[in-house]
Amino acid sequence: MKSFLVSSLNAHLRYQDFPGKGRPIIFIHGLGCASSYEYPRVIISSVFRQRRIILVDLLGAGYSDRPKEFSYSTSDHARIVTLLVGALGLSECDVYGHSMGGSIAIEVASMLPQIVKTLVVSEPNFDSGGGFYSRLLAEQPEDEFIRTGYSRVLAKETTPWLGCVTAMAPYALHRGACSLVEGIEPSWRELIYSLSMARWMIFGEHSLPDIDQQELPKHGIKVLAVPNAGHSMSWENPEGLADALSCAFGLSN
């Protein structure tokens, strides 16, 4: 585990950096998750040995620090990731993000259009309004969520998500959820439509049908599906997600 100091916050962003000779791939996790938790079973696939792999734990999650003064919005998370890219001296990279991480990845690509060569997202938020979990988390005021809502979320959760959401700062979880509900302007959808690098969208098979399966290709975005998986594809079928990513990133055995 490596560490990058975000000097404006006096906080450390932590990440895993696996060596490889090819263009680096940055992995960004979703709300309440952590790349250090989500992706090891994905990147053990032999195809990823061709590339340098960087698994980022966003601030507030996983092994990273949890500064209370940070907004935890998608845009500010994206800015921190771009600072990491600069600190690592990357002249080019690919980016993958899942769910909220997909929305963040879209913003990273829009901030670094000359550096990001391929953008891959899986079931991100394209529009404001949030998803089921983000709306549920955001419906309470932050102080009330910290006092009572967070513990209720943990008590009701039975999926592997519990393992990493337990490690996340409740204020970070709540502010991230609110950011997804509020959205950005222009929207994540408008941003990804406007980008010129190679763009891919990955669905879990159980999330289909979805209108974006037909809509995204109209804007030059290629679509893949992970079999035997829904939204939580990195847990449900890590090998299938690895196969989809290897296709999108042009990897081969």
TrEMBL record:
Location of the AB hydrolase-1 domain: 24-124
Protein's UniProt keywords contain Hydrolase: yes
Keywords: Hydrolase
One Gene Ontology term, aspect cellular component: membrane
Entry protein name: Alpha/beta hydrolase
Molecular function via GO: hydrolase activity
Pfam families cross-referenced by the UniProt entry: Abhydrolase_1
UniProt-listed PANTHER family: HYDROLASE, PUTATIVE (AFU_ORTHOLOGUE AFUA_2G14860)-RELATED (PTHR43798:SF33), MONOACYLGLYCEROL LIPASE (PTHR43798)
Xref: Gene3D superfamilies: alpha/beta hydrolase
Keyword Hydrolase among record annotations: yes
Coiled coil location: none
